Amino acid sequence: MKTERKEKTIKGHFSAALLDEIKERLDRQEQVILFQNRRGYSPYMSCRQCNTIPHCPNCAVSLTYHLSNHELRCHYCGHIEPPPKKCVACGSTKIETVGLGTEKIEDDLKVFFPNANVQRMDLDTTRTKNSYQQIISDFENHNIDILVGTQMVSKGLDFDNVSLVGIFDADRMLNFPDFRATERAFQIMLQVSGRAGRKEKKGKVIIQTANVEQEILGKVIRSDYEAMYLTEIEDRAYFFYPPFTRLIRLTAKHLERALSLETIQVITDKLVAKLGKARVLGPQAPLVHKIRNKYLYNVLIKIERENVDLKAVKAFIQSQIEEVLSEKKYKQVQVVVDVDPV
Ligand SMILES: [Zn+2]
Ligand SMILES: [Zn+2]
To answer: What is the 8-class DSSP label of residue 73?
Structure first.
């Protein structure tokens, strides 16, 4: 993508390489699957003048733009509002949609290949009864030329006539802030790739990335699960992550930021005193630090799998939380315990 960007051959979010391959498939009456990972990725609106992004009034997240209803939605609390006509910060009317969802890909395809039948398969298009099955049989019967979708297209779909799979934005999957990001990205890229070239026809997979040197991509190309595993397991051991540990996450929630933080800090101090600093990480504000007007603070506890009585540790943590929350000052604070959070 870096090279193509320099050479200005990218159209929308499509590389010329991918567009050429799609065209070839359509000419040969073959089918194409395009994959866009949904996780951590949704389109939003932004002012072209000052880059201000509409945010949810209740949560610390930007609002997601939904093309089909032409509205902005908060995925945390359900707040809905119409797209702004003017930027709230500078008043400019030049507001654009940023980010690439399956809807945007579908839209672009209709422009690039006006004669092709394009269908989207994601949470939005499979909400009603039978719609999932309908799309599958339409694709099977070749009423659809290009299927654009999220995780849903990655599993168990075997279509003989699919000879090309395109994967958008591998880099974002790989750089998702989670210790499982590489493993997940590997798995999903491999799964999606498996949709290309069933039976006799040899298929092709195009992964769009800005950095082809990334080791993990080589492992995807070679379907080398073992090599991926060996690197990952080493990292996990080094950083003291599962499967070597169990994770327990505590989240304090309150309308007042300071009180939420103070509560989790008091609990953290008690935990550190007994479990040690190495096992207790935090407190920190999570990626989304405000939901439904409540401020969130996390502390993450890592517990070894071997030689530790997990039950006793859990009971200890619970008792510490209860002790703190029994104090009048902290009574209104909510503390949620999540074991092995995903
Ligand atoms: Zn919200
Ligand atoms: Zn503005």
So the answer is: E
Instruction: State whether 19 and 158 are in the same domain.
Output: yes
Query: For residue 81, is it within any domain?
Result: no
* Sequence-separated (6 or more) residues with CB below 8 Å from residue 273: none
Query: Using one digit for the tens of pLDDT, what is the confidence trace for 39-95?
Result: 545 678 888 888 888 998 888 888 888 877 889 988 888 899 999 999 999 999 998
Residue 44 Cα, ligand 1 centroid: separation in angstroms?
14
pLDDT, the chain, mean? 89
Whether the CB-CB separation of 138 and 91 falls below 8 Å is answered with: no
Domain that holds residue 179: 2-41+100-236
Q: How far is the CA of 336 from the centre of ligand 1 (A)?
A: 19
Quick one: what percent of the chain has pLDDT higher than 90?
54
Residue 22 sits at the vertex; the CA angle it makes with 165 and 18, to the nearest 5 degrees, is: 70
Whichever domain contains 275, its CATH number is: 3.30.70.600
Do 200 and 144 lie in one domain? The reply is: yes
Q: Report the number of distinct structural domains present in the chain.
A: 2
Task: Starting from the CA of residue 60, give the closest ligand.
Answer: 1
pLDDT one-digit tens code per residue, 249-269: 999 999 999 999 999 999 999
Residues 313 and 331 in one domain: yes
